Amino acid sequence: MTDSELIREALLARECSYSPYSSFPVGAALLATSGRIYRGTNVENASYGLTMCAERVAIGCAVAAGERSFEAIAVVVRGGGSPCGACRQVLLEFGHSLRVVMADEGGSLVEVKTMAELLPSAFGPSSLE
Ligand code: THU
Q: Which of 63, 128, 109, 112 lies closest to 90 in space, CA to CA?
């Protein structure tokens, strides 16, 4: 699975975004070590604070399918931004070496970073040992 294939999956997920309040659709595609891909998109709510981000929806879908180990996640947003702080924390739960592939709405790669780079000095599972 190449980064561009994963980005394509994230673009497809983004088409399903429910974002009537922000008009800011986000698509995510999470590649598990099993080789399976789990899509996620943002799901907004009239009670704004209940909005679910694309990355966390993808993690939820994957974990509900029995996955625990991941290689990469592609995230597609207008302009190619990076995951919010809450999503970084949730992604970090599953490993510092997870690659985060960021792309814009046209599918162009903007940057690739690891979770260790996106969330240094993190509080994670090992902090509880
Ligand atoms: N959003 C995500 O889906 N992921 C992020 O990492 C940042 C923000 C969504 C939430 C909301 O629906 C919209 O983008 C604007 O904040």
A: 63
Residue in this structure with the two tokens 């260790």, named with its chain if needed: 116
Instruction: Ligand 1: list residues with CB < 6 Å.
Output: 19, 22, 24, 26, 42, 44, 51, 53-55, 83-84, 87
Q: Rounded to the nearest whole angstrom, what is the distance from the C-alpha of residue 53 to the centroid of ligand 1? A: 5
The residues facing 38 across adjacent strands are 30
Which residues are designated catalytic? 55
Segments making up each domain of the chain, as ranges: 3-128
Would the pTM count as exceeding 0.70?
A: yes
- For residue 80, the model assigns a pLDDT of 96
Residue 65's pLDDT band (cuts 50, 70, 90): very high
Of the candidates 25, 13, 5, 31, the one whose C-alpha atom is nearest the C-alpha of residue 99 is 31
Beta bridge partners of 30: 38, 73
**CATH topology classification for 3-128:** Cytidine Deaminase; domain 2 (3.40.140)
